Write the structure tokens for this entry.
Amino acid sequence: MVLVGAEARRRAPSADVDSVRVYAAAAGGVEYRLVVAEDGDAEVAVCVPTYLGADELESLRAGGDAAGALTVRLRPLDDRDVVEIDVSDPAVFFDATADA
């Protein structure tokens, strides 16, 4: 089962994430990433689309390298509910397709 939106926010905190996949694309000066956090035992995947300006990518990479991880936040625009997904190997966020 692939979860997005409100259902993802509801189920993600109880998921035991055992792998994270990151899919990448770029167009028009924007870097897109789809972060897919998977709980294999529960057969659940939470998909979090992200984007940032291409000029921000290197500073994000430097921050991830310094911290040794990246945290992706899943939240609605009003910030009332937040779920965080830790990407333990920040390099996967910058590769075209990878597993963490």
